[in-house]
C-alpha cells in the first residue's frame, strides 16, 4: 500500500493547479460562460501537455490513468472552461485504435483539432448531446457495429444548459468519417473509453466538491450572525465534517479505481462505477450545503459557490441519471460468479 | 499510488485460517449472541497458547521478540472475516500496548506475559453514568494513602468486566485541576475487595456492565503513567483502539444470497427487483469507502503519524454507514425483515436483525459521531470551537 503521490505526480498536480489558479479564476470562468470555452486557457493547458500526455511520444511515456485523474480533479476544482476530460478520453481511445486512427491522434495532440466522445445517451427522437460538441472538430462514437471518428464543423451555436457547458448535437453520419474499429474490438474499445470517462468525471466532481468545501470553510469562519461566526454552530460545523469525510472517501475510491484500471484488474469497471456514483452524490450534497450556508448570498450570481452548484449537477448529468448507473453497477456486482468482494479482503 | 494490501505473511494467514475453520465450534457465534459475552475462553486460550498474541513483543514480557509482529493483525482480520467475536482480545491488547508504553516495570513483568499467553482479559473503565461521551468528566476518585491508593466511584459500560482480570480505570486524582489535568490511570484487579459488577443488558445481543468501586485499595505499582497524566495515557490507548470495525465482511454476500432465495412473482426473486439491487449496490459502495478510510488511517499510522483525523473520518463514516445499511437490509425483505434468528423464515438466519440491533451502538461508543465530527471540524477543517 502506498498513498503518497510520486514526486513526478506531485509536480504535475502543482503545475496544473498553479496554471488553473492563474488562468481559470472565477472571473475567467464567468466570462467564458457565454460559450463554455476559454480558448486561451485551452492553449495554456495544451502547452502543459493536456491532453497529449495521455499518449506516449518519442521521449516520454504516456501518463497513467491515475495521473490523468489528478489532472481532471484540478480542472474540477477550478471549474475550468476547457474540454480536458473529452480530450483525454479521445486521445486514449484513438491511441487504442492504432493505425486505423491515421493522423487523427497527432492532430488532436498537436492541438489542431479538439476531439470529444459521444457518451451514447441518445434515445429515439432525442438529440445526441455531446460534451464539448459545440467546439469539437471530431467526435468518437459508435455507429452500428463501428467505432467511428466523425468530423464536425463546430458551429459554436449555444445550447443553453444549467452548467453553461459547450454542448453540441452530433448525429453519426454527418460529414467525413473514419472507421476506427469494428465489431467486438470496437465495442470493447468504446466501453473502456466510457469507463475512463466515468473515472475522470468522478475525479472532476471530487475536485468540485473539495473546492466548494474550501469556499464553505472560509465563508462560515468569517460570516457572523447572532453575534458569532456561523462556524461555531454545530449544525454547520458537523455537516461540513460529514462533507469533508465524504470527499476523502470519494477521492480514495476514485484513486483506487484509476489504479485498478491502470493495473488491468478485473474490478476496475466496478470501482469506476462506484467512484462516479459516490463522487457525483457527494458533489451535489457538498455544493448544496455550502450554497445553503451562504444564506441568501449563495443564491446570488455574485458569489462563486453558485458556479460550483450549477456545474456539479451539469458535470454529473453529462454521464446521465445516477439511478441508471446504480442499475449498471448492480448488474456488474450481482452477476453470478462475480469475484469482487466489496471492500476487498479484510485487513 | 498502490492499493495492494500488504500481506506480509501469507503462510501465517493460511495457518490461522485453517486453525479457525477447524477449531471454532459452529455454535460459538450463536452462543456469544445468546450470552451477550463476545469472548470465548476456549478459543482465547488456544490462540494464546500458540503464541499468536505474542509476536513482536519483548521476550522479557513473554513476547517473541521481533518475530511475528504482524501476526495479531492478520489473526484479528481472519476472526473478523468469520464473524468470530474477539472483544476480549481487542481490549486486552489495547491495554497491554498501553502498559508496555506507560506501565511500571513490575506491571509489565506480571501482567503482560499472562495477557500474551491468553490467560487473562482486561476491560476498559472510562465512561461514567453522568459523563457519557465526556470521558474526562470522570468523578471516580483515587486518593493517596501512604504508598497505596483508595478508589471510590463507578463506571458504566465496562463490557467484559465479568470475565476480566483487570480493569483499566480512569480516576480523578486532583479535583482542583482543570478537568483534563487531574486524571490518573490505574490497572485495578477485578477480584480486589470492593469491586462489584452488575450486568446491563442491551438490544444488540451484547451484555455490558456497570462496575462499582468502594474503598478499593491498590498499591502505587497499579498506577499506569504519571500522577495526573491520565489523559496522556488515554491518548496512548486511543492509538490502539480499533473502533467502528469495518462491518462484517460477510454481510454483503449474505444479503445477496438471501435476496436471491426469496421468491416474488413469476419466478422472480427479490434480487431481480431494481430497488433491491440499488440498495445492495449502495451497500457495496459504502463498504468499499469504509474500508478505504480504514486502510488510509492504518497506513497513515504506519508512516509514524497519529492519524487522528483519518481515524475519526473512518470511525464516523463506517459507523453511520453501517446503521444505514442495517436499516436497508431489513427493508428489502419487508415483513420477513423483522424475523429473528431461530425463525426458519428469517432472511440470512436472522443475521440482519442482529445487525440492525447491534449497529445502532456504533455511532455511540468509542467516541460518538458527534465527537468525531468535532475533531474533523476543528482539527481537520480549522473551524473554531463550537
Describe the model:
The complex is a heterodimer of chains A (347) and B (386). Chain A is an alpha+beta fold. Chain A is built from eleven helices and eight strands. In chain A, strand 7 (224-225) and strand 8 (228-229) form a beta hairpin. In chain A, helix 4 (65-77) packs across helix 7 (183-222), helix 9 packs antiparallel against helix 10 (305-319) and helix 9 (268-293) packs antiparallel against helix 11 (322-333). Chain A is globular, with a radius of gyration of 20 Å. The model of chain A has no long low-confidence stretch (mean pLDDT 94). With 386 residues, chain B is an alpha+beta fold. Chain B folds into three domains: 10-120, Acyl-CoA dehydrogenase/oxidase, N-terminal domain (Butyryl-Coa Dehydrogenase, subunit A, domain 1), CATH 1.10.540.10; 124-238, Butyryl-CoA Dehydrogenase, subunit A, domain 2; 251-380, Butyryl-CoA Dehydrogenase, subunit A, domain 3. In chain B, 43% of the residues lie in helices and 14% in strands. Chain B starts with 9 loop residues before the first helix and ends in a 6-residue tail after the last helix. At the A-B interface, helix 7, helix 8, helix 9 and helix 11 of A face helix 4, helix 8, helix 9, helix 10 and helix 12 of B.
Question: How does the SSE layout of this entry go?
Answer:
The complex is a heterodimer of chains A (347) and B (386).
Chain A: H1 7-23, H2 26-31, H3 39-47, H4 65-77, H5 84-96, H6 104-110, E1 115-117, E2 129-130, E3 138-143, E4 146-151, E5 168-169, E6 177-182, H7 183-222, E7 224-225, E8 228-229, H8 234-262, H9 268-293, H10 305-319, H11 322-333
Parallel strand pairs in A: 1-3
Antiparallel strand pairs in A: 2-5, 3-4, 4-6, 7-8
Helix pairs in contact in A: 1-4, 4-7, 5-6, 5-7, 7-8, 7-9, 7-10, 8-9, 9-10, 9-11
Chain B: H1 10-23, H2 28-35, H3 41-49, H4 71-81, H5 87-102, H6 105-116, E1 122-125, E2 141-145, E3 148-156, E4 166-172, E5 183-189, E6 195-201, E7 207-219, E8 223-224, H7 230-239, H8 251-261, H9 274-302, H10 308-331, H11 351-359, H12 369-380
Parallel strand pairs in B: 1-4
Antiparallel strand pairs in B: 2-3, 3-7, 4-5, 5-8, 6-7
Helix pairs in contact in B: 1-4, 5-6, 5-7, 8-9, 9-10, 10-11, 10-12
Amino acid at each position: 500500500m502506498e498513498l503518497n503521490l510520486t514526486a513526478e505526480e506531485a509536480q504535475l498536480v502543482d503545475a496544473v493547479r498553479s496554471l488553473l489558479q492563474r488562468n481559470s479564476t472565477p472571473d475567467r470562468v464567468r466570462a467564458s460562460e457565454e460559450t463554455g470555452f476559454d480558448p486561451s486557457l485551452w492553449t495554456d493547458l495544451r502547452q502543459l501537455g493536456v491532453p497529449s500526455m495521455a499518449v506516449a511520444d518519442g521521449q516520454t511515456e504516456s501518463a497513467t490513468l491515475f495521473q490523468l485523474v489528478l489532472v481532471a480533479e484540478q480542472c474540477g476544482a477550478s471549474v475550468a472552461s476547457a474540454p480536458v476530460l473529452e480530450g483525454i478520453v479521445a486521445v486514449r481511445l484513438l491511441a487504442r485504435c492504432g493505425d486505423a486512427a491515421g493522423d487523427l491522434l497527432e492532430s488532436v495532440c498537436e492541438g489542431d483539432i479538439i476531439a470529444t466522445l459521444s457518451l451514447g445517451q441518445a434515445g429515439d427522437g432525442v438529440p445526441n448531446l455531446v460534451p464539448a460538441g459545440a467546439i469539437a472538430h471530431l467526435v468518437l462514437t459508435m455507429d452500428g457495429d463501428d467505432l467511428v471518428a466523425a468530423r464536425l464543423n463546430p458551429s459554436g451555436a449555444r445550447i443553453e444548459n444549467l452548467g453553461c457547458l459547450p454542448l453540441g448535437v452530433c448525429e453519426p453520419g454527418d460529414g467525413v468519417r473514419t472507421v476506427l474499429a469494428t465489431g467486438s474490438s470496437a465495442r470493447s474499445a468504446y466501453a473502456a473509453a466510457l469507463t475512463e470517462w466515468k473515472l475522470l468525471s468522478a475525479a472532476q466532481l471530487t475536485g468540485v466538491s473539495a473546492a466548494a468545501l474550501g469556499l464553505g470553510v472560509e465563508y462560515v469562519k468569517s460570516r457572523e450572525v447572532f453575534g458569532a461566526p456561523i462556524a461555531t454552530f454545530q449544525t454547520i460545523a458537523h455537516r461540513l465534517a460529514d462533507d469533508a469525510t465524504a470527499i476523502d472517501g470519494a477521492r480514495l475510491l476514485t484513486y483506487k479505481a484509476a489504479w485498478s484500471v491502470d493495473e488491468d484488474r478485473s474490478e476496475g469497471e466496478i470501482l469506476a462505477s462506484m467512484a462516479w456514483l459516490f463522487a457525483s452524490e457527494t458533489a451535489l450534497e457538498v455544493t448544496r450545503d455550502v450554497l445553503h450556508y451562504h444564506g441568501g448570498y449563495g443564491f446570488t450570481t455574485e458569489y462563486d459557490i453558485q458556479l460550483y452548484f450549477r456545474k456539479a449537477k451539469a458535470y454529473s448529468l453529462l454521464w446521465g441519471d445516477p439511478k441508471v448507473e446504480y442499475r449498471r453497477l448492480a448488474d456488474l456486482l450481482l452477476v453470478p460468479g462475480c469475484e469482487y468482494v466489496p471492500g476487498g479482503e479484510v485487513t | 499510488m498502490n492499493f495492494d494490501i500488504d500481506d506480509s505473511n501469507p503462510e501465517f494467514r493460511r495457518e490461522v485460517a485453517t486453525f479457525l475453520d477447524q477449531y471454532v465450534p459452529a455454535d460459538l457465534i450463536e452462543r456469544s449472541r445468546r450470552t451477550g459475552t463476545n469472548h470465548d475462553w476456549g478459543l482465547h486460550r488456544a490462540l494464546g497458547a500458540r503464541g499468536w498474541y505474542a509476536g513482536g513483543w519483548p521476550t522479557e514480557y513473554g513476547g517473541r521478540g521481533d518475530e511475528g509482529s504482524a501476526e495479531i493483525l492478520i489473526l484479528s482480520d481472519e476472526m473478523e472475516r468469520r464473524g468470530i467475536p474477539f472483544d476480549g482480545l481487542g481490549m486486552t491488547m489495547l491495554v497491554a500496548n498501553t502498559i508496555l508504553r506507560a506501565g511500571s516495570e513490575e506491571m509489565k513483568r506480571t501482567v503482560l506475559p499472562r495477557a500474551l499467553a491468553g490467560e487473562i482479559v482486561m476491560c476498559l473503565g472510562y465512561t461514567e453514568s453522568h459523563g457519557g461521551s465526556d470521558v474526562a468528566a470522570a468523578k471516580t476518585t483515587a486518593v493517596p494513602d501512604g504508598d497505596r491508593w483508595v478508589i471510590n466511584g463507578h463506571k458504566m459500560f465496562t463490557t467484559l468486566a465479568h470475565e476480566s482480570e483487570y480493569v483499566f480505570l480512569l480516576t480523578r486524582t486532583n479535583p482542583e485541576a482543570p478537568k483534563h489535568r487531574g486524571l490518573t490511570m490505574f490497572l485495578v484487579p477485578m477480584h480486589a475487595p470492593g469491586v462489584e459488577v452488575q450486568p446491563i443488558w442491551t438490544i444488540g445481543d451484547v451484555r455490558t456492565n456497570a462496575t462499582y468501586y468502594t474503598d478499593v485499595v491498590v498499591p502505587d505499582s497499579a498506577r499506569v503513567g504519571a500522577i495526573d497524566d491520565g489523559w496522556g495515557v488515554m491518548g496512548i490507548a486511543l492509538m490502539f483502539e480499533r473502533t467502528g470495525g469495518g462491518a462484517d465482511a460477510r454481510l454483503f454476500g449474505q444479503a445477496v444470497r438471501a435476496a436471491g432465495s426469496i421468491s416474488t412473482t413469476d419466478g422472480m426473486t427479490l434480487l431481480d427487483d431494481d430497488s433491491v439491487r440499488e440498495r445492495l449496490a449502495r451497500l457495496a459502495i459504502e463498504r468499499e469507502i469504509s474500508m478505504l478510510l480504514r486502510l488510509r488511517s492504518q497506513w497513515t499510522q504506519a508512516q509514524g503519524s497519529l492519524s487522528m483525523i483519518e481515524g475519526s473520518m473512518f470511525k464516523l463514516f463506517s459507523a453511520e454507514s453501517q446503521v444505514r445499511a442495517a436499516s436497508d437490509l431489513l427493508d428489502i425483505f419487508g415483513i420477513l425483515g423483522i424475523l429473528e434468528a431461530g425463525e426458519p423464515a428469517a432472511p440470512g438466519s436472522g443475521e440482519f436483525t442482529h445487525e440492525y440491533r447491534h449497529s445502532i451502538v456504533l455511532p455511540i461508543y468509542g467516541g460518538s459521531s458527534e465527537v468525531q465530527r468535532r475533531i474533523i471540524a476543528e482539527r481537520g477543517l480549522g473551524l473554531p470551537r463550537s
